[in-house]
Design a protein that fits this description.
heterotrimer; A alpha/beta (about 250); B alpha/beta (about 475); C mainly beta (about 375); A: alpha/beta; Rossmann fold; 6-stranded mixed sheet; 4-stranded antiparallel sheet; 9 helices; C: about 375 residues; 10-stranded mixed sheet; 20 strands; about 40% strand
Chain lengths: ~250, ~475, ~375
Amino acid sequence: MLEIKNLHARIGDKEILKGVNLTVPDGEIHAIMGPNGAGKSTLSYVLSGRDGYEVTQGEVFYNSQDVLALAPEDRAAAGIFLAFQYPVELPGVGNANFLRTAVNAVRRKRGEAEMDAVAFLKVARAAIKNLSMKEDFLKRNVNVGFSGGEKKRNEMLQMALLQPGLAILDETDSGLDIDALKIVADGVNALRSARFAALVITHYQRLLDYIVPDVVHVLVGGRIIRSGSAALALELEAHGYTGLEAA
Amino acid sequence: MSASMQELASAKYQYGFTTDILMEEFPRGLSEDIVRLISAKKSEPAWMLEWRLKAYRLWLRMEEPDWAHISHPPIDYNDLYYYAAPAREQPKSLDDVDPELLRTYEKLGIPLNERAALAGVAVDAVFDSVSVATTFRETLSKSGVIFCPLSEAVREYPELVRKYLGSVVPMHDNYFAALNSAVFSDGSFVYIPKGVRCPMELSTYFRINARNTGQFERTLIIADDEASVSYLEGCTAPMRDENQLHAAVVELVALDSAKIKYSTVQNWYPGDADGRGGIYNFVTKRGACRGRDSKISWTQVETGSAITWKYPSCVLLGEGSVGEFYSVALTNNHQQADTGTKMIHIGRNTTSTIISKGISAGKSDNTYRGLVKILASASGARNFTQCDSLLIGNECGAHTVPYIESRNASAKVEHEATTSKIAEDQLFYCRSRGLSQEDAVGLIVNGFCKDVLKELPMEFAVEAQKLLSVSLEGSVG
Amino acid sequence: MAIPGWKRHDMTALPLKKLEAWRYTDLTPLAEINFSEAGLGVAPAALPDLGLPRAVFINGRYSHASTLPMPEFSPVHETGDLPLAQINAESAQAGLTIDVPDGVDAGAILLVSHASGEAPFAVHLRHRIHLGRGASLTIIDIAKGDGLYWHNPVMDIRLEAGAKLAHYRLQDESRAAFGLATIRAHIEAGAAYEHFSAIIGARLSRTEIHATLMGEEAAAHLNAVQLLNREQHGDFTTVVAHRAPCCASRQTVKSVLSGLARGVFQGRIEVDRIAQKTDGYQMSQALLLSEHAEMDIKPELKIYADDVKCSHGATIGALDEDQVFYLRSRGIPEAQARALLIRAFLDDALSAVRHVQARALFEAAIDTWWVSQ
């Protein structure tokens, strides 16, 4: 379970999050919607521990662990996975090598046995097949020369292999066509279980046609101003955020 | 830096132990008498002694070069020992080798026992001034390959040695080459006869052990028509507070359609985190592609030494000959590296490729210096050069000094250079996937070096990758 | 007003080839000549005009052909360590002195240096350009002449914060002359020095520019084309020192060499420890049109800050015969096809010249050069 209590954060002198409260129980998928500049990406980066974001108040717990005290890699080991809006390129670093290094780093921290190259390749190939990706994906350098859709698929591949308990999708749908959108959705839906939760951050409603959320939150001006069922997303799509900002 | 941090930093160098063994040393200092002593010790013929003396007299009149981007206190050439060797008689076979030496090489990961040795790699083990063992000589001799200490070749194969020694790096080439020509002690000699593909990888492992001793090995590799060989070189030294001089010369000769691949993983002791101690590595390496369609390929991973001054080069004489230089130079703490290559295009349709990756961390200085020269005779010549520098931290320097000279309109030269750092978002991306900061740096640096590392033979590549990560420990944080 | 000639100096004052900065340019032919004082000289019938305010120097003297008032000339105190600037300092008696006050846009001016005479003579002009805060100026700088002479001008430029100087130089010296120009620019925060040189004349020339970026977001753009033939030697040397954060430098240098010509480009980018977020770029390309032409390139990066983006590239080669063939197969005659491709090659450097008159001047000079081939 993810619990965010009165979270305030700033970049430099600018306060972006102004008291976010949010609880995501295991087994549920929550969507966070909001206009540009509402603090959506900041929330995802604060949760995953990127430098440059200063938490001035509040707490975040994941399965009772103090998330804010953990280094990014320890958050990954604890089961938090951030799917990047703009996945980073790593020239010269082979995808297979990167994935295996990450999987084994996380397994080591979780006290699980590391996977050898052969065992890993088997698992990775199966995951690649599930995501309808070409096998040469593993041979290419991480995200280098990937199309937008390929980068997002690669994020889903990493998620499938790291088996997180909590996935945070930071506008993963931006710039994707319908086919790629479905792949992202399938990636998330495949992990749905009583022990998996997800926070889907999106500007548009259309992703939520494929990943149906249990709860939709509206983030405006650094605060969650409304929460509701999946129907809320449709309402926002129809009327926009303007009417909500005053609330 | 606290004492415990220092221990930690120096503990990273795994090969810093010393071997306690009875040594024979000549008196300190350099004179004609010392040159004569070295020659006599090796029972050399008169022509070899004359050659040495000529080089010594030449050296006396030369001056240390000062153009490299390095600085060090003056070297007192009369305060060094020029010969140090295990006191025991030179062993006739592996069975005679001092067990203490065998244990030393075992510890360095180079078992000399042929049963335990890496499959497919023959090793010449050089300990201070002498070769102490050469493995798989019989296997090699069956295919006509000569692989032996150079001192032995001087006696056993004088025609070959006389013909080629100093023919690629003449004694007057530079200060350190002249010094080496006067006092070179041991090194490897390789001759691959016509049409022979050397059946195994050849390798020399250099170990400096004795205190205050310079190492002046000399290696000569000749690949006759249509012959090919892959040669590996590794080097380590104990941790000492003093600086030790290593001034080697390597000469390669490739005749018609011959191929020589020369790989180095240089891990001499780099000095401690405060810049105390470490090897001064002044090395002249050059290959001559004399035959048509011959090829010489240098690959180096330089992580050790307090100072590295080396420019493995190719003289491309034969029509259609090919020169390659793949280099990773990593400096940390107070290390200084000034390294690169020279590609001299003389023959028609000669091609060369230079890929250099420099990584600077700590307070180090790292310079790529290279020359691509296309002579008027080199019609159709091609060169491609890529030099990339990576800076880690804000106290180091990264420098690129290429010289590009073309005198032939039909030649084509391309050069690219970039400087970058490890981006914060790359580190964060890796860490959010569970990698520690140090693993992430190691991964990104190895990715940066990939185009070079893939040129190394398999076992060396794995070793080099580990070495890069270990050498960077503590540089980010 | 006497202009001292070369005889006052002995050879040791000249930079010799053993200096690393002079490894590709040998001044021995210069040292072998006895240069006397310049005669009065005559202004050529057709001095470049362009309809701009102009300063004209004939054989090193301020000419009545100038429309700008004669500047006061104060003695030179040379503090730098460049040998040619030192020789200049000992001999200079005249030069353009301009001081643009804060905030003033002074428009464009023309600077003409012309030299002609019988016996070999030397001309050492000292120009001083100062732009106050936020001021701007364009200088179109033309060096021409006839006969054997040594033109050794030094231009010292100081740009206060936010100032903008565009400096367009056409080096069209006599083919028998030595043209050794030294330009030093000190550039404060937010100021920009934009330089373009077309190097066409002189038997032996060197254009040496030192641009020092002293304040944040200062910029230096140093572009050049070198068009050399016969036995000409042209050397374009730059040193850009990034001494403050967030500065940018751009250099595009294109050389076209025919006959026995030799082109040199040396470009160093220095980045101090403090100069984070430096953006430095340098590209040097050369076309060798004849069998015996030669190009030497030494691009150099000296970097002490980690968060920087610096790169350089260099290529040397011939015209792409596939491209020539492609154009010919579309009906374009060979000579025209080659001219077209060479113009396209030069365009990257030339496109930085946005001043219309300067652009037209360079285009005409390039066309003339090509026709003379």
